[in-house]
Predict the structure.
Amino acid sequence: MSNGQPTTRLARQLGIGDAVGIGLGAMLGAGAFAAPGPAAQLAGSGVLLALLIAGLVAYANATSTARLAAVHPNAGGVYAFGRARIGPTVGFTAGWAFVAGKISSLVAMALVFGAYATPAEPRAGAIASVLALTAINLAGVKRTATAAKVGAGIVVIVLVSVAAATLGSSEANSSNLEPLTGSGGLHGLLGAAGIMFFAFAGYARIATLGEEVRDPARTIPRAVSISLAIAFLLYAGVTSGALAVLGPEGLAESSAPLADAARAASGSGLATVVRFGAAIATLGVLLSLLAGVARTSFAMADDSELPRVLAAVHQRTRVPHIAQTAVGVLTAVLVLFIPTITAIATSSVCVLTYYAIAHLSALRLSPAERRPSFLAPFGIVGCAALALSLPIESVVAGIALIAAGVSARGLLRAAKQRNHR
């Protein structure tokens, strides 16, 4: 290419602002509005320390992912990194864990949107949102980025308003923030961190768009760091405010903690705004996540790890339209059958496996490629600790799902080898 950028099968249209918008749109979702409550159930006032632990693990994950994406600016994220740095089987495991885990996340996010926006018919609202956002993604990645930036901007305003209203309220009591370590011990603290980590998941969406970002070696690491830092500050503000106003017990009992905190601090007007912001945030997650899962599916299909038809690229929009449609339709169907809590638990195990493979791949980088020598081992330990803090049935279900995909791949490859003999 004349501009010296790596060869790409897709169109490089995204700049730093677009990438940050997609990253924030992916992170500032339902987790920000729902995670503090169940985290407080496990750790009490330790939810703030749990947020810090989750943020540190997320930062380690983001660093390894960003440095890999700068060296391998291709669609597919950790699937492509694991394949290049370790081998095809490890790459497939990462890609399958991502697709399986994030489709579970899509189901959960769609159901949360339905609960906020169409409470009388939550599943109908969930399906409608998935189909509408799939259509936006099919129109082109620039439209995806524009919609993500608009949605992220609205959510940032809502979260800043909640933090300001709660922290400045006469109802806020600083004693509710103590003790910092909480009341659930180490296991409760790690469990709460695992839940709060779900709220951070999304920064890797930038890496999955590696073939559509301009100057990826510079843009991807900057966009990941900026979006993660903004998300952490916003989460710290709203979680501190909600804990100060509601207290550990009130926060633990709330199914809509930010809305309840806003109501306690400023009345029903701000609470209504928070519910609107939650709906917009969830749409932002769905939009960027639909795009990210489709790109990973596209990359795997292009390597014949998934059906080749998913590798088709639309001539006009330059997006993987068949993969995008398939992900949207599958999500809409699963919404009819899978409960929200099951979808979230399955997603957590799969996503933490995905990031563990990212760290293993990052350890294969050379010093000249800025190998994250300390953060990668820390990230592996962190991913394992958070995964093992989840309910045992969720761990078993996630491992079984990943193992099923890897086993199916092995059987299919063995059958192909026999046919070629």
